[in-house]
Backbone:
């Protein structure tokens, strides 16, 4: 491979990296060549929790003397294990805070919508509203929708400040799983309480038992997966509609040379939803015509992309490592960002071209960007102002314009309810066909492949290679976030992909139902949909009585964000074997890594794995799936046989 081919396997990305070099514009790929990661920080062995340090406690050499052993502790006496566990726990706390602060914002808008204070938002999915109301223990009867919605909004917001008891959505988990959490004392009491307590535990001189720190981190992570993220997903579905299968397109080729291009990037769907609604406003259309553009093209980036893609079919320009490259095309008239995963370098890249970088969240400003704050009570006004900024910028384009031709079709929008319906039909919606095909061996198992891109590895390669290996071996894949966008670019999110890439068993099921072998389930917060799908499989019967019994595994081979560690830890705490790649943040402590990779399974029934090589990672996941199949007694394929009367008599006689 050439040096540039080592940066990405996506041809559109490679083209834009080359163009950026020609244009003299620096991107993350250039910085990754020059700036190497700190080896001590990468293994989790640097402590900056007080300023007697930073203290560095790198992994011991094979032959070390007494002095080297002494240096394996910080000035305060904190061991390498304590330091490593504290760093890991702080990542969980930060990732949980990110998802749950997002959820808090959604809950506040939901409540304001229910009260009629933000008329530009409305409740679109009444059926899901009733379901969430029942989960929250809210009376339905013949009460008006508005009253029920107000109760839901207040109950959801109360989950953040709850001090005692348990989060309400924990009751959605299998009963055995709930029992495990309670026996270990890791059932989250309140979302904010768990984040605050975990950060307190990691302060200098507080919790100094690495196992206790990691178990406490599990409780905090569960407050994300079964708390904040699940609240966010459910309330967004009620407000904007539960996703159903819809056709979309992906990659930088979705940008248009003769149209005004607006890219929305980030994780909060509130403003993007409003922008979709005002695209055809007469004032907007008239302004577009006045600058000589043929139209206005809204496209997404990262998880804001996934949100409006799966509800409206809005095209996706790319995933995390393509955000700068979208601007490099020279045709992005405005990039609109909210929270999480926005590179500060976007402002510098925008200066190389004509793009207006617009920040919209009071929590996330970027030096050099225009700030147009999103106010829910003036949502349409803000959306129109942003679109007008882009339209006015259309005539400022420079001559260095180049759009890659690469674009792929995809079918997305597979919520766990939609999968239920597609498998069982409207009147008999059920996961039973999936369970039956896992039991009879046509489908080997289930894998969740989620997460980020990481500039320390070849863009898209680890996730894509892993997913192809899994479906080739009859493992159906559920995907979210940037990994989902990777799958779309590679053509894996269409029903036709089953015949091209899946094993015979999985392909036969996909063709019968009309499903892709890889199911796009949404954005980062929508990993809670995977938890609900796993729970539905357990409750449908035949595959054990806990998530840990399922022939299932998870992975995020290109992870880079603290959110990914929080997600991974709540899957592990829910009983799932979860494999990460690229780097691992506790390699500086063998006992901490052993606890996460082996010993944690004794209590939580789930465990971590680390394997950068995607084929080896697939092998680990498949071996785990096969182990679970054997434990369930379904390790051999069993075809369904229709018995005639003679066969039935033989059974009775036996």
Residues:
């Amino acid at each position: 491979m050439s040096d540039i081919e080592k940066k990405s396997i996506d041809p559109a990305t490679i083209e834009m990296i080359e163009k950026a070099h020609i244009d003299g514009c620096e991107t993350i790929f250039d910085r990754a060549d020059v700036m190497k990661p700190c080896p001590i920080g990468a293994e989790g062995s640097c402590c900056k929790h007080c300023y007697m340090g930073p203290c560095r406690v790198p992994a011991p050499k094979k032959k070390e003397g007494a002095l080297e052993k002494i240096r394996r502790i910080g000035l305060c006496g904190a061991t390498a294990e304590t330091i490593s566990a504290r760093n890991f726990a702080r990542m969980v706390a930060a990732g949980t805070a990110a998802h749950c602060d997002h959820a808090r914002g959604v809950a506040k808008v939901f409540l304001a919508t229910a009260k009629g204070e933000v008329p530009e938002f409305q409740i679109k999915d009444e059926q899901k509203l009733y379901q969430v109301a029942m989960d929250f223990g809210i009376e339905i009867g013949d009460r008006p929708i508005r009253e029920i919605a107000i109760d839901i909004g207040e109950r959801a917001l109360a989950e953040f400040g709850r001090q005692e008891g348990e989060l309400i959505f924990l009751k959605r988990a299998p009963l055995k799983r709930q029992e495990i959490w309670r026996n270990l004392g890791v059932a989250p009491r309140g979302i904010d309480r768990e984040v605050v307590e975990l950060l307190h535990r990691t302060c200098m001189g507080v919790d100094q038992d690495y196992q206790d720190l990691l178990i406490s981190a599990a409780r905090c992570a569960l407050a994300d997966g079964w708390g904040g993220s699940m609240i966010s997903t459910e309330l967004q579905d009620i407000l904007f509609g539960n996703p159903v299968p819809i056709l979309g397109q992906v990659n930088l080729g979705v940008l248009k040379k003769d149209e005004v291009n607006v890219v929305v990037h980030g994780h909060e769907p509130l403003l993007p939803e409003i922008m979709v609604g005002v695209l055809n406003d007469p004032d907007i259309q008239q302004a577009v015509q006045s600058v000589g553009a043929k139209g206005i093209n809204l496209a997404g980036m990262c998880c804001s992309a996934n949100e409006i893609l799966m509800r409206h079919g809005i095209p996706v320009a790319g995933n995390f490592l393509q955000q700068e490259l979208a601007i490099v095309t020279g045709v992005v008239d405005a990039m609109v960002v909210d929270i999480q995963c926005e590179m500060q370098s976007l402002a510098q890249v925008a200066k190389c071209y004509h793009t207006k970088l617009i920040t919209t969240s009071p929590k996330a400003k970027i030096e050099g960007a225009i700030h147009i704050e999103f106010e829910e009570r003036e949502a349409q006004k803000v959306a129109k102002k942003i679109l007008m900024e882009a339209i006015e910028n259309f005539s400022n384009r420079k001559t260095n314009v180049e759009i890659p031709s690469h674009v792929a079709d995809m079918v997305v929008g597979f919520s766990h309810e939609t999968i239920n319906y597609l498998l069982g039909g409207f009147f008999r919606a059920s996961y039973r066909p999936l369970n039956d095909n896992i039991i009879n061996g046509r489908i080997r198992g289930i894998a969740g492949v989620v997460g980020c891109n990481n500039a320390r590895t070849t863009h898209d390669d680890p996730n894509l290679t892993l997913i192809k290996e899994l479906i080739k071996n009859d493992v159906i894949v559920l995907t979210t976030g940037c990994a989902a966008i990777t799958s779309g670019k590679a053509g894996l999110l269409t029903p036709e992909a089953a015949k091209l890439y899946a094993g015979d068993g999985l392909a036969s099921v996909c063709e019968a139902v009309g499903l892709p072998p890889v199911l796009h389930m949404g954005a980062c917060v929508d990993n809670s949909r995977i938890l609900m799908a796993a729970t539905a499989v357990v409750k449908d019967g035949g595959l054990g009585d806990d998530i840990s019994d399922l022939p299932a595994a998870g992975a995020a081979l290109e992870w880079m964000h603290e959110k990914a560690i929080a997600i991974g830890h709540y899957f592990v705490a829910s009983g799932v074997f979860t494999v990460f790649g690229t780097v691992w943040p506790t390699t500086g402590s063998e006992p901490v890594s052993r606890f996460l990779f082996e010993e944690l399974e004794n209590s939580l029934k789930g465990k971590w794995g680390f394997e950068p090589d995607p084929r080896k990672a697939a092998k680990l996941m498949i071996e785990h799936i096969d182990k679970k199949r054997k434990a369930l007694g379904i390790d051999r394929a069993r075809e369904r046989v229709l018995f005639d009367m003679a066969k039935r008599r033989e059974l009775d006689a036996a």
Notes: The chain has a mean pLDDT of 94. Residues 11-59 form one domain. The chain has four domains: 11-59, 80-240, 252-396, 413-632. Residues 80-114 form the longest helix (35 residues).
